[in-house]
Amino acid sequence: MKNSRYFNLRPVTVICLLVSVFLGCERDFSDDVEFATFPTNGDVFLDTFSAGLDYFPFVDAGADPEAFSVDTDEVFEGDASMRFDVPAFGNGFVGATFNTTSNRNLTGFDALTFYAKASQAATINSIGYGISGETNNKFQVTANNLSVSTRWEKYVIPIPDAKRLIGETGLFWLAEGASFEGDEGGYVLWFDEVKFEKLGTVAQPRPAIFSGEELEEQAFIGSNITITGLTQTFNLGNGVDQTISIAPSYFNFESSDNSVATVNELGQVSVIGSGKANITAILAGVKAKGSLELTSTGTLQAAPVPTKPQANVKSIFSDSYANDTESNFSPGFGGSTTQTSIATINGNSIATYSNNNFTGIIFDNTVDASGLTFLHVDIYVQQAGIEFEIQIRDVGANQMIETDVNTGLPIGDDRDRRFTFTGLGIGQWTSFDIPLDGDIAAQKNNLGALILVGGPDFILDNIYFYKE
Amino acid sequence: MNMKSINALIISPIRLKCRSMVCMLTILIVFLSCETDDEQTVTRLTDLVLSEEFDSDGAPNSELWDYDIGRGPNGDGWGNQELQYYTDRAENVTVQNGVLLITARQEAFEGAQYTSARLLTKDLFEQRYGRFEARIRLPWGQGIWPAFWMLGADIDENPWPAAGEIDIMEYRGQDPSVLIGSVHGPGYSGGNAISKEFILENDRFDTGFHIFGIEWGPEYVNFYVDDVLYNQITPEDVTGPWVFDKPFYILMNLAVGGTFVGSPNAETEFPQTMLVDYVRVYNYTEPF
Question: Could you give the CA distance from residue B269 to residue B258 in angstroms, rounded to a whole number?
């Protein structure tokens, strides 16, 4: 019976009840029993809102609820289109989802399609479908940085695995705005003939996890790691690849050893034992590119809890302090072989580095450490012979990291202080307090990065600037 | 992307109005009404003389198939700046599970960056007229150029284009729904070949097997895909002498790059494989 694939626990209970009722009547199941399905209407907005569709701007996130209107002057086909007035920088953004009050069955389609044009060439930050409060966006799909021109053109956002979409409400969503002064804003976007279609030309699925990379990470009992970089790539009818970011529930995740690590349907990996486990995924029968090989060495004790008062600290990475700035832990330097991950063990975040040759922690905003005297770092290593260097970089007034590509030395208005970590205890935390002296003694008001050279494998925690 | 405008560029005026299989039948009727032979159907030749079903695993039957090796007699990518080096290695050509696999690989080999294979029946199977068809699933991606085609068997004495060429199937991997069928001869070769494109509506050639064939007789070559006859070429259509009244041999190959298709790009996935389920040839018999 084809409806068996929809079984989950609750229907099974119901079926059991049904069985007992039927038994009471001494009657068998009919072969014709089929579950009712939701309407298969794929229309979203042709010339008006399709049946049951409503507009939900992301007002809480700062979206401009007035940005959307129905336009009867500028249309691709018929007599109306969807119009979004993208505000200039600082005046909110276009952000909304269009959901239906009754669920739709989209299993017969292979893509959301629409015609779009803009009053100037533009790039839409995010656009797709599958926003749903009830399901926590279980089947969300997003095309990032979709370029639109000033001519009406057709766009295709494929469905990663249509058989999952038996009861969708989130039919269309987008977010676009000026994210900085000088970013595109103050222009108009139009969409027309927005609908789900069975194109027949969406082909060659190539799902990926971890953006297709084969990662190796150290882990410990209690580590929780979320699988990121979830994408599906199709070749469209025009021969061009379209990659979309997709929700974890499209995948079936697998751990090669469930006594070492387990993974749930949201792509959350929990390390529960010692040993090796390889985390992989399948989407609609196609093995995803990318994997994570975890090596768990058992229990990791927490780093010593810092005791300095918050008032004396500007923190980069510690659960004990509020961050002075957010930072990029995976800057993707050219030629870097480093794999960095932020893992949480028993509620405490640590930064693990594997196979490091050089990488950095790039501060989103520079740190003024004029009144501070030390950088604190806690380091954990698991094998002998690990040594690596930290370079505390002040990026100067121009706020740019400037480096001589041949020597690696700071140039322009940059200065740095370098320190090599040696004598690291194996299987334990070693704490370092590095004086902010040397070349940055007189210039530490624009600290912009910590560069990490060598290793190759180590774990960091409690990275903060402080004064005594 | 604007499929509508792409279609409009390619489809002939008659087919512009037609989008469905029902319409395809209408086209047939239109063709029928244009022909002197009112009995014409997609195929009518049924006297099977060659049935290569690829039923034995391993190298293809050497009594039927030979190989072109290398980058062409002038080392110029077979006159088209193709990028592959053809080999007869199992990595590039083999039979598995009843299917011939011709595989293009990205690898440094004999100075080329790609390897692939070209099979041909020259001196092994040559025939004048008849019905030639193959059931193939095509590869895909920018710069991928598979072909199922024929050359005049007198090509050594009568060099191309005088020898004549019939392209039963050519296809660009970046246009996964578009098939091209052509004839080349003296005065109408290369970019001036007599060609027609066929668009597979709401489908593409790299996701399933399709039958590519011709029926060829005195003064005509009919081109068909699956159950659709989409073109007929006669001496009236060619801009030079008709050179298709002599034996031809069969070729199948998977080229990479070249002037017809352009080079692969970063999106092109390798390896790419062309899967051939069968090649069948039927004798020509006089009209019924």
Answer: 17
